[in-house]
Amino acid sequence: MKIYWTKINRIIDETPEVKTYMLDRPEGFEWEEGSHTHMAFEGFNAGEKPNRSLIRHMSISTLPHEGAIGITTRIREQCSEFKAILREMKVGDEVAIFKTHSNVPLKREDKNVYLLSSGVGLATFRPLVLDFFERADGVNQIHSLNIDSSKKFLFPDVFGAAPEQKFTSRFVVNRNEYYEELKNLAADGEGLFYVVGSDEFLRQNIDVLRRVGVRPEQIMLDKREGQLAEFLPVDATVMR
């Protein structure tokens, strides 16, 4: 496993609780849209076993051509040890990144794509939308649906509707609105549904989609292959 040590070169306040940490791109570090990485702080590997409180699985919210590795995260007043440390970090501080992989690259199968997210989960989808804007072949259109009760919606410059580019977007602040909209989207029997959020959010979305006949292979989750069966059993049948 190769560990890249890199520096924070910019910190962007996206909302009062959400920050994007822009990291220098180390030589040889590559990623694609929908990627996540492991981010860690000094001392995480000092002992016989890694200190997991200093490591966090994070989505990358930028594309390589943007020149920096963007890590977007919500940091509340009451937070984990990891985020408490991150909150105090400054430009020039070093972090480690390793084990980078994409579970949700943009599939180009000439279908409609639906991006379903909760809160800061939208960060995973930002690179997919930018990739689509740059190269639209193989994708009919994309629709993003995000729920965030804070009403502080992320990345308005990217997720503003752009129907001329076959991209539409909707933000909602409550679950009733969200799931009503999801039921309408699920009427597309051949669409691809990408879901990012908490495990509970994933299960709720899968339940709605499966009840109207969406097949497991149409549902994309930001989970490792070994975890997928927990959410989408291979022998799953349509629920009625």
Written account of the structure:
The structure is a single chain. The protein folds into two domains: 4-102, Elongation Factor Tu (Ef-tu), domain 3 (Beta Barrel); 111-231, 3-Layer(aba) Sandwich (Rossmann fold), CATH 3.40.50.80. It is 23% helix and 31% strand. The protein contains six helices and eleven strands. The strands form two sheets. A six-stranded antiparallel β-sheet has the order 4-3-6-1-2-5, with no helix packed on it. Strands 9-8-7-10-11 form a five-stranded parallel β-sheet, with helices on both faces. The longest helix is centred in the middle third of the chain and has 13 residues, at 122-134. It is globular, with a radius of gyration of 18 Å. Mean pLDDT is 92; it is low at 236-240.
Structural class: alpha/beta
From the structure provided, what is the oligomeric state, counting identical versus distinct chains?
single chain
Q: Supply Rg.
A: 18 Å
The parts where pLDDT drops under 50 for at least 5 residues are 236-240
CATH hierarchy class name of the largest domain: Alpha Beta
CATH topological fold name of the largest domain: Rossmann fold
- Report strand order across the widest sheet: 4-3-6-1-2-5
Q: In the CATH hierarchy, what is the superfamily of the largest domain?
A: Nucleotide-binding domain of ferredoxin-NADP reductase (FNR) module
Order of helices and strands: EEEEEHEEHEHEHEHEH
CATH architecture of the largest domain: 3-Layer(aba) Sandwich
Tell me the total number of β-strands: 11
Beta content comes to: 25-35%
The portion of residues assigned to helices is: 10-25%
Tell me about the biggest sheet? 6 strands, antiparallel
